[in-house]
Specification:
The complex is a heterodimer of chains A (228) and B (225).
Chain A lengths: L13 E5 L6 H7 L12 E2 L2 E2 L7 H5 L2 E4 L11 H11 L5 H14 L15 H13 L5 E5 L7 H16 L3 E5 L3 H7 L2 E6 L2 E6 L1 H6 L4 H13 L1
Parallel strand pairs in A: 1-6, 1-7, 4-5, 5-6
Antiparallel strand pairs in A: 2-3, 7-8
Helix pairs in contact in A: 3-4, 3-5, 4-5, 5-6
Chain B lengths: L2 H8 L2 H41 L3 H16 L2 H11 L9 H27 L2 H9 L4 H30 L12 H12 L3 H27 L5
Helix pairs in contact in B: 2-5, 2-7, 2-8, 2-9, 3-5, 4-5, 5-7, 6-7, 7-9, 8-9
Classes of the chains: A alpha/beta (228), B mainly alpha (225).
């Protein structure tokens, strides 16, 4: 699936990964927290090789937040419950302390007033922001976004991107698989183009979107642009 | 029509007045036995489904073999084997224990399959989301997957529970003093089947509320997402 990927993400950097479906973008992202197990090679986060057998993956994952295309909120818990579950069960915080942290995470995504709402009472955009808050509450060092806006109605995309922009400004390290090119132009430090399991080209967004070295990249970018 | 003879045979007030106390006694035993079966059967079924969800091959295989065997065997056969055959290997048990254990095993087998289907019905993304926040497999199962799975399993589980707990009547074969035991021994003693009518009434009194409860539960837990 992935072949000879060598990618380093600096602290505070926002890296965008684009590429045709089946190119391995999501797989690469999911290798970063071992939702997908790489058969060979290593993944280092914060100086630790997380693929080593003696690594406590549950501990490492708290430092690596992940946001999914389909939100994956827990339907049987309200927004605050979603955000505080790991704080209470993994970090062992008392309910009051977890809820204080949870509320501050929900405030960061602009949904403090929806704390008691259940996922089915929230719009797609709101659900995705709760999912971001769920990752943020654990105070991760890095956030992984797997097509965070692909399942959203177009008019709801902006609210999620706004939150992502604010995170970027606060210095969060982020790796984003997405085709939101306008957002990438405005916010990404680097765009990585993947095809057939390899990184074909990477560079500043203006470069990749306007004068890529590979014709393949140019074609792809043009096709995506025509869809938006 | 021979309504008078029907009434004399099945609704005989004189016979009923002699045997109703026995039937009430049997109701206690039936209730107690059924409750014990539900607790151990559902508990074991849930534990087996949880064990199976860890995807460890040898364990999976054992669970599947157990579930298939005990879903296939008639509970009566299991009771007879436990009560009459086990003493030969120095594992004698009371009639009550044999009936309780047999029905628990059978209920556990069915409950395991139902819980397992419920666990499978929870989208994979739920597990991935939970694991990505650092929750362990067990924590994910307990706090994220099972609460969603159980909601789906409640209607089939209540149905199965009713079916199996009615099987407490099979205990009469090994002389557990439950409803049918008193009803049939009363009937042969009196030479009149009225005690069996009383027994039927006792089952309605015990199980109708449970059936009605299951109806309520089904509407209560119907899709509300």
């Amino acid at each position: 699936m992935l072949k000879g990927i060598d990618l380093a993400v600096a602290q505070g950097e926002l890296v965008f990964i684009i590429g045709p479906s089946g190119s391995g973008k999501s797989t690469l992202l999911r290798c970063c927290n071992r939702l997908e197990e790489p058969t060979r090679g290593s993944v280092a986060v914060d100086g630790t090789d997380i693929t080593r057998a003696d690594v406590d993956i549950n501990r490492v994952r708290q430092k690596i937040g992940m946001v999914f295309q389909s939100f994956n909120l827990y339907p049987h818990m309200n927004a605050l419950g979603n955000v505080t579950l790991a704080l209470r069960k993994v970090q062992g915080l008392a309910r009051a302390e977890a809820e204080a942290k949870g509320m501050s995470a929900l405030t960061r995504v602009g949904l403090a007033e929806k704390a008691r709402a259940y996922p089915n009472e929230l719009s797609g955009g709101q659900q995705q922001r709760v999912a971001i808050a769920r990752a943020l509450a654990l105070e991760p060092r890095i956030l992984l976004f797997d097509e965070p806006t692909s399942a959203l109605d177009p008019e709801l995309v902006g609210s999620v991107l706004k939150v992502m922009r604010a995170l970027r400004e606060s210095g969060m390290t982020m790796v984003v698989v997405s085709h939101e090119m306008q957002f990438a132009r405005a916010a990404a430090d680097r765009v990585v183009f993947m095809d057939a399991g390899v990184i074909l080209e990477q560079g500043r967004p203006e470069k990749i979107f306007s004068h890529p070295d590979h014709a393949r990249v140019g074609e792809f970018v043009a096709r995506i642009a025509s869809h938006h | 029509m021979e309504l008078q003879r029907l009434a004399f045979s099945f609704f005989n007030g004189e016979v009923a007045s002699r045997y109703w106390m026995d039937i009430v006694q049997g109701m206690w035993v039936t209730t107690y036995l059924a409750a014990a079966v539900v607790v151990t059967g559902l508990g074991a079924g849930l534990a087996l489904a949880m064990a199976r969800s860890f995807q460890f091959r040898p364990v999976n295989l054992l669970v599947v073999v157990f579930a298939d065997v005990f879903r296939a065997l008639p509970p009566l056969v299991v009771i007879i084997v436990l009560f009459f055959a086990f003493p030969y290997v120095n594992l004698a048990m009371s009639a009550f224990t044999a009936t309780w254990l047999s029905l628990s095993l059978v209920l556990a087998a069915f409950a395991e399959e139902i819980f397992w289907a419920g666990i499978l019905s929870v989208p994979k993304g739920q597990t991935e989301a939970a694991r990505s926040t650092g929750m362990s497999r067990l924590q994910t199962l307990v706090h994220v997957v099972l609460p969603q799975a159980v909601r789906l399993t409640i209607p089939p589980l209540t149905n199965r529970m009713i079916a199996i707990t009615k099987g407490t009547a099979l205990g009469s074969v090994v002389a557990v003093h439950e409803i049918i035991y008193y009803a049939s021994s009363g009937a042969s003693e009196a030479g009149n089947p009225t005690p069996l009518t009383l027994g039927a009434a006792a089952y309605l009194v015990l199980f109708l509320p449970v059936v009605l409860f299951s109806r309520w539960v089904e509407t209560r837990f119907a899709w509300k997402r």
